[in-house]
Specification:
- 25% of the residues lie in helices and 18% in strands.
- With 173 residues, the chain is an alpha+beta fold.
- It starts with a strand and ends with a helix.
């Protein structure tokens, strides 16, 4: 089962209950404190239109992205980072405030549903579950893939070095 949080921006009123419960759940010990900087969800606010956009933390990226696209929404300009879910070296969002370690939404592991979804009073956050057909990868690589890989190695390092490496490997076995 794949779990995702669907966000309905039209229903979010910016109450930040999701940020509070998330930070409390991830406090050590659980529920001992509230620090929104520890939250795995953030509310981005557009004050002129009274618009709020919840964004939850995604995967960590080792480097900042190359793209710096700009988006104009109702006359206000946003950069790509505003809506990005990744924690990366170029932003402070989604990093643990004390250690600087990256944060990632874990869907409140151990709970029936993410607490941000449970505590959202306006149903702006909705848990969606779907089955994903994951095909088991075969243990043995396909013959064609193996030939392509060996061909690339031979082009890069030469056939003689590959033969030497194979000979050393077979001696170890």
């Amino acid at each position: 089962m794949i779990k995702t949080i669907k966000i309905d921006v039209d229903k979010c009123n910016g109450c930040r209950a999701c940020e509070m419960i998330c930070s409390a759940f991830h406090a050590s010990p659980k529920y001992s404190s509230n620090n929104p900087a520890r939250s795995r969800i953030r509310i981005i606010r557009e004050p002129l239109r009274d618009l709020y956009v919840p964004v939850y933390a995604g995967e960590y990226t080792m480097a900042e992205c190359a793209g710096r696209d700009k988006y104009t929404i109702d006359g206000k300009e946003y950069d790509e980072c505003s809506f990005c879910r990744a924690s990366c070296p170029s932003r402070e969002e989604f990093h643990e405030p004390d250690s600087g370690l990256p944060l990632k939404c874990d869907m409140c592991e151990g709970e029936e549903e993410p607490l941000c979804v449970k505590w959202c009073m306006h149903d702006a956050l909705i848990l969606e579950e779907r089955e994903d057909d994951v095909q088991e990868a075969s243990e043995q690589p396909e013959q064609e893939d193996l030939e392509i890989g060996l061909g690339s190695l031979a082009d890069k390092f030469g056939l003689e070095k590959i033969m030497d490496a194979l000979a050393r490997m077979s001696e170890k076995e």
